[in-house]
Design goal:
Elements (H helix, E strand, L loop, with lengths): L1 H14 L7 H14 L4 H6 L1 H16 L11 H7 L5 H16 L6 H19 L6 H18 L5 H21 L6 H27 L3 H22 L1
Helix pairs in contact: 1-2, 4-11, 5-10, 6-7, 6-8, 6-10, 6-11, 7-9, 7-10, 8-9, 8-11
Length: 236
């Protein structure tokens, strides 16, 4: 447990840009940790991709369905930050970006469809129209996109695009129904930009994972799918 605690401290220290010297205090603990994991495995935890994954996993449990209200009356800022305030949304949108870059030939098609249909879903939500099982579908989107990433399944466009688009609609409905309809246009603009930021983050991670061992992408996808299963269970 001491080695894991030191590892977590190292992750946080590196991500904050702090110049913390761990050698003197952790030399013995790290030597034991290296021995038990055959030396090379500790390097994977120092990998930037693994640092991001560890941080996301640490943040996920308490934020699964947590959303926030308006920011100082600014509909644009409310829309911009809204995709980041529910980790079910964050996990699905990042997974879409990683999967599209890591597995598919046309990396832009799936994020574009997701963002476009999310915008339509947002309009539906703002209009006051309700759809059944919104939270269940959002949780299912996390489960499915995680499985697609874990198994590296290159769905044909005729199957993948409608599936991802359907998920995008339900994500958009959830966003739109939770925001004020008095200033819909700036809120939708912010929501779309926030969605693309998450997609770009996932696509960037996908590019990095291209240069890493295959199991990293599969493990990340497996973790996302497990989170999706937990979200789905919580939604019932």
């Amino acid at each position: 447990m001491t080695g894991i605690g030191d590892l977590a401290a190292g992750v946080i220290g590196d991500c904050l840009g702090l110049k913390i010297e761990f050698a003197r205090r952790t030399r013995c603990h790290h030597r034991d940790f290296h021995t038990s994991f055959h030396g090379s495995h500790i390097q994977h935890f120092r990998d930037p991709v693994m640092k991001i994954a560890i941080i996301l996993v640490c943040l996920l449990p308490g934020q699964a369905f947590a959303h926030v209200g308006p920011f100082d009356g600014s509909p644009f800022l409310t829309g911009l930050i809204h995709p980041f305030t529910g980790m079910d949304h964050v996990a699905a949108m990042i997974a879409v970006g990683i999967w599209s870059t890591l597995v598919l030939r046309n990396a832009w098609s799936v994020p574009l469809v997701f963002a476009s249909l999310l915008l339509i879903g947002g309009l539906i939500g703002f209009s006051g129209i309700t759809l059944p099982a919104v939270e269940h579908m959002i949780a299912l989107s996390v489960l499915v996109t995680g499985m697609l990433l874990a198994q590296k399944i290159p769905l044909a466009p005729a199957v993948g695009l409608p599936l991802i688009g359907l998920f995008g609609i339900f994500h958009g409905v959830a966003h739109g129904s939770e925001m004020s309809s008095s200033q819909m246009i700036p809120a939708l603009a912010g929501m779309t930009i926030g969605t693309w930021i998450l997609h770009f983050t996932g696509m960037g991670l996908g590019l990095v994972l291209h240069q890493r061992p295959m199991w990293l992408g599969r493990a990340l996808g497996g973790g996302i799918s497990l989170l999706g299963a937990a979200f789905l269970f919580s939604a019932f």
